Amino acid sequence: MSDVAVLIPTLRRPESLTRALRSLFGHTAAMREIVVVDNDPQGTAGPVVEALRAEAPCPLVLVHAPTPGVATARNAGLAATDAPLIAFLDDDEAASPGWLAALLDVQAATGADVVFSPIRGRVPDTVGWTRDYLERFFGREGPAYSRLIDRAYGCGASLMVRATALPGPAPFDTRADQAGGEDDALFAALAARGGRFAWAAEAWVEEFAPPHRATLRYALARAFAYGQGPSQTAAANRNWPGVARWMVIGAGQAIIWGAAALILTLLNRPSRAQMMDQAARGIGKVLWIKGLEPRFYGARELARLDGR
User: Fold this and answer.
1) What is the mean pLDDT of the chain?
2) Sheet of 33-38, strands arranged across
3) pTM confidence score
4) Residue 103, beta-bridge partner list
């Protein structure tokens, strides 16, 4: 029996879920099962899973987690499998044929607790001058070669050793259900325990940003939230000197990159988007207080889908 299960949380994205699932069916690496976590209260992922069940090279497990929230969905998927290795693939991603094998090879070679994949961002043709920025934003870049690394990325398109990286029955903090960042806390705690991270340079994934996300406004809101992460993590650990340090760093980033963004805007340069991104991350480090987080997931996404 294979040691790895692939988890795909999904919220009312039938077309992209179909693409994500089919991207796994041709893999050479054996999978114990693919766990699809339907995070829609209406349970809309069932028809997609049933339609593809006969094509799947391993069991497809459908779990209904009716309370919308990214951490809740991940925890529900973990509860549905006892596999010792867990690979995460988001429902807007598609894995290359060698994705899982590359992750497993790097994990075996390095002994890392978490292995991350490179991601190519894909955006609609209608995005205009922000294309290059948005493709980088929704992508993930890292070292040219597979090796141990000293930082963590997001848990989408990754492989984790369950015993060390995902302790307990519900390792993802459900307080992050609406704003995200559940992986920041998870990886910060893992690093504090001496956990190791690795990069699998050949484990390519594509991420397809839907039109409502492929905008400068959305990306800058996400950049602000990413910036909040270090300050909030320090605050959660009552590391107040650390909070102060991140706030000072953030203020400097906001001033420097904000000025650069203003100049490039006056010159009408597309590179202004990246400067705006860096400035937004700096502002996030300063305005980290709970309650100021943008809401991207859970109830907010469900309301958008319902037209509310």
Assistant:
1) 94
2) 60-64, 33-38, 4-10, 85-88, 158-161, 114-116, 197-199, 147-149
3) 0.91
4) none
